[in-house]
Amino acid sequence: MSIPVTEAALKDFLIDNDDAYRNLVSEHRQYEARLHELASIHHPNEEEQLEETILKKKKLLLKDQMEAIATKYKATTSH
Fold it and tell me: Could you give the CA distance from residue 77 to residue 79 in angstroms, rounded to a whole number?
């Protein structure tokens, strides 16, 4: 098994080989899709605005978790 060289290659590798990473990516994409829906609302109500704020924070948390997995993988393969 070759070690992924670029960030994009690493992400693809982890999506293919790491269940936790794949689940985080899937959830991140769901949040992104919902945020696009919310962005298309011209006059969002308070609930929609709150949902948007919460989803943005959740996406950032997921991104941090994905980065932690990638960093851990890089650390274990660089030895």
Answer: 6
Tokens of 30: 């769901």
Contact call for residues 60 and 32 (beta carbons, < 8 A): no
Looking at residue 3, what DSSP letter applies? Answer: P
| CA–CA distance, 34 with 1 (Å, rounded to integer) | 36
Neighbours of 14 (CB within 10 A): 20
What average pLDDT does range 18-32 have in this prediction? 98
Give the Cα separation of 30 and 66 in Å (integer): 15
Q: Is 21 exposed, middle or buried (0-12, 13-18, 19+ CB in 10 A)?
A: buried
Give the pTM: 0.87
